[in-house]
Design a protein that fits this description.
Helix content is 49%, strand content 18%. By secondary structure, it is of the alpha/beta class. It starts with 6 loop residues before the first helix and ends with a strand. 55% of the residues are buried.
Length: 553
């Protein structure tokens, strides 16, 4: 029976692509030398596809047991990738998926067959539209990059007959051949002895598509840059050419087409690596600039930017070159250090007092892997315990840990999902213990700490606790909305009661600047009067911290 691309195949494709990128992430990170040698292309692609997978799964879950329609699934895939796109490579991949979705959903002249599925011709058109739309989104396309690999995949698909499985296999084979040729097309790749990292990621995604349609796994592209995966400092320096923009700026933008056209022109004059993807009022903007403020201001003039992420490509940062003897810490290395990502100035002070090297996490500005590597270098220790304190940073932190290991540092990553869990880990840290024993104790303390966050709803939306309205207070327990309230103290108290229902000995409260002291007093009194033998400790999170963090040990 001829193979078609139906909703189940799209769902399987997304899951297999995430699995493939998870497996290949470190390799792709390691060969990342263009446009900036920041070692995070694999991580960015993984996070982009992870967002697409979550959106697709939400569509299926919302309609079970009935399956959704193909347009709904491919639109969800493209939208999820758009809002979750990370870095230059992730932004381009989001546009590739958007281009495919336009055809597969019938938005760009393509038509699914009478069953609502896409046939081989639809898939060929989708791959062509993907390559064209991605090239259109890049201000100054460069050959030897993921754009070249995408075009070659589309060309190979056009030249091949058969069903969807045959077309996907042809596209994969064409992409592999184009990937092998990238070192001869882009000088920086040739000097480093690697293939293009973004193209390598696309090959993984197309291999997943082939497997989803045929049921047969494709052989991994062994040899395509794998044996050159550890890029040297000299190669990193070559690819950066000594100088470049100081910042990577990424944000989502709500704006109309005309405003975005003006924005492209404005940002093109500010920096390079400009990619603007999206449409229908929602865009993902990526650019490398020296003036990050100006790039954000341009977005404000065009519409409403949010989820703003700024990564510093400073001299000595992992995005360019390793620190020289003049910029690196001098003297004997410490035996052990803690490096932690911390939101809020008050918590940063608390962590610093405990001896940790702090990486600040500002609202909308999650640190990149380069910032984490630089912090590990600043810690100047033989052994480092890394606390990301954010579930969304787990892969970024893993990439930083891997990079630091190549520089001779023994790094243990404890997957803390909140600064509250990080505090619990710090509380049991003993540098006199053996490294492995210390890591086990810290990991156990973090894992035994349940955490919650109070936030304010930005808009009306569905949650696991029901429908919230803009301005409602939300109590998120372990990342999921569990409580919706109209007043901060009541919401916090209800959230605390939910958490303490499972038991506990210690409550930790971290208050943002806007929360008055009397709120903490009321919560402390409530715990004291309601739960015997449960202690409470209160910290001030300071500027840039969450409204309130709650921990129960």
């Amino acid at each position: 029976m001829p193979q078609v691309l139906d909703v189940h195949a799209v769902r399987a494709w997304c899951a297999l692509a995430l699995e493939a990128l998870g497996r290949d992430r470190e390799e792709i990170d390691a060969i990342n030398v263009y446009p900036v040698a920041d070692g995070d292309t694999g991580t960015n692609l993984y996070l982009t596809v992870e967002s697409a997978v979550q959106a697709v799964e939400a569509v299926f879950t919302g309609l079970e047991p009935a399956p959704p329609a193909l347009p709904d699934v491919v639109h969800a895939m493209a939208h999820g990738a758009l809002i979750g796109a990370r870095g230059n490579s992730g932004t381009i991949l989001a546009q590739l998926l958007r281009g495919m979705a336009q055809v597969l959903a019938g938005d760009a002249g393509g038509e699914a067959d009478h069953s609502g599925n896409a046939d081989a011709e639809n898939l060929r058109q989708a791959l062509r539209r993907a390559a064209e739309s991605a090239r259109e989104a890049v201000a100054h396309p460069v050959e030897g990059t993921v754009l070249t690999v995408a075009a070659a995949a589309a060309d190979a698909a056009d030249a091949h007959s058969g069903d969807c499985g045959d077309v996907a296999r042809a596209a994969y084979d064409g992409a592999c051949a184009a990937l092998d040729a990238t070192p001869g097309q882009l000088a920086v790749l040739g000097r480093a002895g690697v293939v293009d990292a973004g193209g390598r990621g696309l090959v993984a995604v197309l291999g997943a598509l082939t497997e989803a349609l045929s049921g047969d796994p494709v052989a991994p592209p062994a040899g395509r840059g794998v044996h050159h995966a550890r890029v040297t400092a000299d190669h990193s320096l070559d690819c950066a050419d000594g100088e470049g923009p100081a910042f990577e700026v990424i944000y989502l933008l709500e704006a109309d087409d005309r405003a975005v056209a003006r924005l492209r022109t404005r940002l093109d004059g500010l920096g390079d690596s400009l990619v603007v993807v999206g449409g229908d009022g929602l865009w993902n903007v990526h650019v490398h600039v020296d003036d990050a403020g100006a790039a954000v201001e341009a977005g404000v003039e065009a519409g409403r930017p949010y989820r703003i992420r700024i990564t510093h490509f400073a001299v000595g940062d992992a995005h360019t070159t390793p620190p020289t003897s003049g910029s690196a810490p001098t003297g004997e290395r410490a035996q052990r250090a803690i490096v932690a990502v911390v939101p809020g100035e008050g918590l940063a002070g608390l962590y610093s007092e405990a001896g940790a090297t702090v990486v600040p996490e500002r609202p909308g500005e999650a640190p990149g892997s380069g910032e984490l590597v630089e912090a590990i270098r600043r810690a100047h220790a033989r052994e480092v315990v890394l606390l990301p304190n954010d579930a969304e940073l787990r892969h970024t932190a893993a990439a930083a840990a891997e990079q630091a290991r190549t520089e001779g540092v023994r790094v243990a990553l404890i997957p803390t999902r909140s600064a509250i869990q990080g505090i619990a880990a710090l509380a049991v840290h003993e540098k006199e213990r053996r490294f492995d024993e210390d890591v086990v104790a810290m990991t156990s303390a973090a894992g035994a700490t349940r955490y919650a966050e109070l936030a304010v709803a930005e808009r009306q939306s569905w949650t696991m606790a029901g429908i919230c309205q803009a301005g409602d207070f939300l109590g998120l327990i372990d990342g999921d909305v569990a409580v919706i309230g109209e007043e901060v103290t009541t919401t916090a108290r209800t959230t605390l009661d939910r958490m303490l229902a499972a038991g506990g000995e210690m409550v930790t409260l971290v208050l943002g600047d806007e929360v008055p002291d009397e709120v903490a007093d009321r919560l402390e009194r409530h715990v004291r009067e309601t739960y015997l033998a449960v202690d409470t400790v209160v910290y001030r999170g300071g500027r840039n911290s969450a409204l309130m963090l709650i921990g129960v040990e």
